[in-house]
Amino acid sequence: MRIRIVDAFTDRPFAGNPAGVLLLDSFPDDHWLQKVAAEVNLSETAFAHPLPPGGEADWALRWFTPTTEVDMCGHATLATAHVINTVERAEGTVRFAARCGILGATAEADGTITMDFPTSELKPVAAPAGLTAALGAEVVSVHDTAAHIGDLLVELNDEETVRSITPDHAALKGLSDRGIIVTAAAEKPERGYDFVSRGFFPGVGIDEDPVTGSAHTALAPFWAGRFGREDLTGLQGGARTGMVRTRLRGERTLLTGHAVTVIEGELRA
Length: 269
Known about the structure:
Blueprint: E1 2-8, E2 17-23, H1 30-40, E3 45-50, E4 59-64, E5 69-70, H2 74-87, E6 93-98, E7 101-107, E8 113-118, E9 123-124, H3 131-135, E10 139-144, E11 151-156, H4 159-164, H5 169-172, E12 179-185, E13 195-201, E14 206-209, H6 216-227, E15 231-237, E16 241-249, E17 252-257, E18 259-266
């Protein structure tokens, strides 16, 4: 079977967030899926198979980190839609049935793909004990997103702090259900983005995820409230970065980005 590595939220190879993608006839047992994801050893590997016509979705979709299955993943959904559009020549919106519900992915005329995800609800909370020390940075505010993605959204002082922190990943583990998203307003919006972020998910086997689409379902309402605008662009990442265009539409958030296939090969297992 064919396996592909796709860089998501970027229009060039070796940037954005890489995801493994396998299009299958059906899902094998969970143990096999987890073993493949561990072998690929990227933050997520996506597995999808077509569904019978006439239903509410076109494809079934699941995502696995090297250690566990996850409920929501943006960049691997973008990568999967890119592969389906390339291989299957799909037109219009591709609908996925996933753990978090029905997700749409629409190929745009400019070569981007726009995904339709549920908006995460934000609840202000006190910083958990040990968070400041684990991050090595002063915390401005903390919001819980547990209803959807299980992250803590942590506002830091400025863009430079977000870009430069070197957190203690072992200390971060256990401070949230899934991970920690740190964010700040862009220092110079004229560079083409409104806010920056980084995502740390040691609890699911990912010390740092370069560009986390699902995190932007929380970042979008957070920064829309601060800026008074529903259409924004985020830059995420440390050494490796990518851009996510967000459009807040009430209970849904639209996430737009490019994707490019960098590796294609044969899986013999």
